[in-house]
Amino acid sequence: MSSVAVIDYGMGNLHSIVKALQHAAPEINVILTADGNAILKADRVVFPGVGAIRDCMHALHETGLAEIIRQAAQTKPLLGICLGMQALLSDSEENGGISGLNLIPGHVVRFADNLTDHQGNRLKIPHMGWNQVHQTPHPLWRDIPQDSRFYFVHSYYARPDDNRATAATSAYPDDFACALAQDNVFAVQFHPEKSQTAGLQLLRNFLHWSG
């Protein structure tokens, strides 16, 4: 049986992503684990995240999972979600500046405090709720209509050094990268496990993607 390891590094309730993966592909064995060997033995890896990146990176280094994620990204499909996506970049402005895993060269920056939409209405930070996602070609978008809506909760966003790493954009109010792709790695700022049909399809596509 094919397997996917969901990395548990002690941050956030991972029940929803585990349940969503099980629902998306019941034939896949979903393993929630902090064990590096189990992660490296799995066929695919999901790296979720919520909260502050300082705490995330501290936990990854304390547990040795930072190096496990780097190894996994070289050999098997890896999906980063929300903070898990941001941690894959070189660094983040959050918490006064934090180094990331540097698997995808780029930076994580905060939305400006004075954002307004095109009608002049003030936009709240964090960016929270449903927003359209405009795709660029990638196998993980299979059977997901262009400009489908996904669920977001974030105050920071990714700015990759190479725009070719951008797999999708959303707008708040200007376009920002909301999905990144590089080799075996795919990462999303939104929460597919909270994004109903489109989110489940993306997870299903990942669970059958060879990288």
Question: Can you walk me through this structure?
Answer:
- The structure is a single chain.
- The chain is α/β, with parallel strands linked by helices and 211 residues long.
- The protein has six helices and 14 strands.
- It has an eight-stranded mixed sheet, with helices on both faces.
- The protein is globular.
In short:
The protein is an alpha/beta fold. It is 26% helix and 32% strand.
C-alpha termini separation: 18 Å
The CATH superfamily title: Class I glutamine amidotransferase (GATase) domain
Number of strands: 14
Task: Characterize the overall form.
Answer: globular
The SS-based structural class is alpha/beta
Low-confidence residue ranges: none
Strand order of the largest sheet: 2-1-3-4-14-13-12-9
Number of domains: 1
Mean pLDDT: 95
User: How many DSSP helices?
Assistant: 6
SSE blueprint:
Layout: E1 3-7, H1 15-24, E2 29-33, H2 36-41, E3 44-47, H3 53-63, H4 65-75, E4 78-81, H5 83-86, E5 89-92, E6 98-99, E7 104-110, E8 127-132, E9 134-135, E10 149-154, E11 156-160, E12 166-171, E13 175-182, E14 185-188, H6 196-207
Parallel strand pairs: 1-2, 1-3, 3-4, 4-14, 5-7
Antiparallel strand pairs: 5-6, 7-11, 8-10, 9-12, 12-13, 13-14
Helix pairs in contact: 1-6
What are its keywords?
Rossmann fold; eight-stranded mixed sheet; 211 residues; 6 helices; alpha/beta
